[in-house]
Design a protein that fits this description.
The protein is an alpha/beta fold. It has 15 helices and eleven strands.
């Protein structure tokens, strides 16, 4: 989800020829995958497998590529398909069944596909508009709090979002507006948002680290948009990676713009090392990995009893009342919504 500065502590067994080598298990994911080296190393020592990680761009791009290569997959496990794209992956036969150890410890509200066990919930987070506190203070303007606020004249030309057709947070933001305004209202809302100067870019990395004035990367890139579609957990990332660390986060979250996201992992159909893939899925639900995630990928664990770091809970609490949509409704409407959104906003 949220991109990080940390490298994933992974290694590849070149002699094993990637997934073809019985001692290598390959994880395919989006660019925001990250894990602590010592946590990965502990899994490698315990399981006997070396972990190789292939990153394939934004979540939307990664899912699409995995579907295109499903007959001869790049790896054994795919991590990072979320509830906005899950039906596409399942309908295309991307995964084979496996009930990971620890599935009974997943919080009930995040469990899905319980009959077939094709995917395993791994993490959750909230897609929300973030704002640059310093910018709004300097301009003596109150930050927006809701979807309704974003179309007001005082916020004209301030928001940057991601392409809903290629980016997971961009799609999540679109679904949030569909949940808020319904089938008959979301298009009218986006017409107003477009008229109010919303800027659309391809990926989260571009929106957050180049266009957004409140992030460390955006400041270096001289980003001029003080509002960005990102995550409720982005503010603690700004604190954790700052040197020295500030007492308060430089960015805030518009609580009334949030959409709840859940990310899943699954054993790829035609995986060359299915046993290694199963071991890796078990590991992704383990307490050690679940507690490692918050400060690496800035997401919340789904495992009951997994602890969240103080800095994370202090600067990035989960949204109190996020928008949600039934997975069946997403499946039935997503592609048409994206098509309509593209015609409305990008043309």
């Amino acid at each position: 989800m949220v991109g990080t500065l940390a490298a994933c502590g992974s290694s590849s067994d070149d002699a094993g020829g990637g997934s073809a080598g019985a001692k290598t298990v390959t994880l395919v994911s989006h660019d925001s995958w990250a894990a602590s080296k010592d946590v990965i190393a502990a899994f490698e020592k315990e399981s006997g497998y070396k972990v190789k990680v292939l990153k394939d761009g934004d979540a939307g791009q990664a899912v699409n590529k995995a579907i295109l290569t499903k007959d001869n997959p790049q790896g054994d496990v795919f991590f990072g398909v979320d509830n906005t794209l899950l039906s596409r992956a399942l309908d295309n036969g991307l995964f084979q069944p496996y009930e990971a150890k620890g599935s009974d410890r997943v919080r009930p509200e995040y469990r899905t596909d319980r009959d077939k066990h094709r995917v395993t919930p791994i993490d959750t987070g909230d897609i929300c508009v973030n704002y640059d506190k310093a910018w709004f203070s300097e301009h003596k303007l109150t930050p927006p709090k809701s979807f309704d606020d974003l179309v007001k004249p005082e916020y004209k030309d301030l928001l940057v979002t991601e392409n809903a057709g290629s980016s997971s947070p961009g799609l999540g933001f679109l679904l949030g507006t569909a949940a808020q305004y319904g089938d008959g209202g979301w298009e009218g809302y986006w017409k107003k948002l477009k008229a109010n100067g919303v800027k659309v870019v391809d990926s989260w990395e571009q929106a957050y680290n180049e266009e957004f004035s409140g992030s460390a990367g955006g400041k270096k890139a001289k980003g001029d948009r003080p509002l960005v579609v990102s995550y409720a957990s982005s503010p603690p990332a700004e604190v954790v990676y700052a040197d020295p660390q500030p007492d308060t986060a430089p960015t805030g979250v518009a609580d009334g713009t949030c959409f709840r996201q859940v990310e899943y992992a699954g054993l790829l159909s035609n995986a060359k090392n299915p046993e290694g893939g199963k071991a890796l899925l078990d590991f992704l639900l383990s307490k050690s990995f679940q507690e490692d995630m918050p400060l690496n990928m800035f997401v919340y664990p789904v495992r009951e009893g997994a602890q969240v770091p103080e800095a994370f809970s202090k600067f990035g609490p989960q949204a109190k009342d996020p928008q949600t949509l039934d997975p069946a409704k997403i499946a039935d409407n997503r592609d048409q919504w994206v098509k309509s959104w593209t015609s409305l906003v990008l043309k």
